[in-house]
Amino acid sequence: MEPVLTPLLCREARSLLDLDAAEVAFVARIPVALLETFEAGHAMPPTTVLATLRRIFERGGVAFTPERSKRGVELRACA
């Protein structure tokens, strides 16, 4: 089974929304060190944490499109 969120997609989504690790960790209610370790590719958080992070990014307007774009993420157009 493919991860809900990869370290690269997490970094790219955070960058796209212009958020630093502390801001995302605060909203996700996780330690900053956990997010930074994950983004560096040194640890894999529980699936529930990955799902929470992905939900935060999606609510911020991020669309995960690794099959369509080099970056793997893009902002959704507002309706």
3D architecture notes:
The chain is mainly alpha-helical and 79 residues long. 49% of the residues lie in helices and 8% in strands. The protein contains four helices and two strands. It has helices spanning 7-16, 21-28, 32-39, 47-59, and strands spanning 62-64, 73-75. Strands 1-2 form a two-stranded antiparallel ribbon. A hairpin with an 8-residue loop joins strand 1 and strand 2. Helix 2 (21-28) packs across helix 3. The protein is globular, with a radius of gyration of 12 Å.
Question: How would you sum up this structure in a few lines?
Answer:
With 79 residues, the chain is mainly alpha-helical. Helices cover 49% and strands 8% of the residues. It has a two-stranded antiparallel ribbon with strand order 1-2.
